[in-house]
Amino acid sequence: MPNPSKNLETARRYLKAVEEFATGPALGAFFSPDVVHVQFPNRVAPHGSRCNLPEMIAASGRGKKVLARQRYEIRHEVANGDTVALEVFWEGTLAVPFDTLPAGESMRAHFAVFLEFRGGKIVAQRNYDCYEPW
Question: Which CATH number does the domain housing residue 17 bear?
Fold first, then answer.
């Protein structure tokens, strides 16, 4: 039976873990082993991407090398059945240069993420990321 309020709390804890650069089992604990993450095209990933759990965990490790810090601010949230939708503001401070930005500069994005749950675990994630100009 779906538990929207529990799924919403899990989604909040998941974003906090990502903010803190969780990887390995600490990150993997939020997901079903067969999770699929789809990132729709955006400035950072012009062709979008589709990845599985090992790829998601590897990406988190790479993020920790690129960013000195990051923060996520949930602006709106909706939970219905096994779906959680979040509207989020993200800001990351670069540890290394990226594109035309030097280390120490910040990147900002506004995004929506849709999380599908099964048995309290995330089985699908879809991101619609909109980066502010730099």
Answer: 3.10.450.50
Q: How far, in whole angstroms, is CA 54 from its chain's centroid?
A: 15
Look up the domain containing 64 and give its range: 4-131
Beta bridge mates, 66: none
Tokens of 129: 């990321």
Confirm if 19 and 72 have CB atoms less than 8 A apart: yes
Question: Bridge-partner residues for 7, per DSSP?
Answer: none
Closest CA to 72 of 94, 88, 53: 88
Q: Which amino acid is at 28?
A: G
Task: Write the pLDDT tens digit of every residue in 20-55.
Answer: 999 999 999 999 999 999 999 999 999 999 999 999
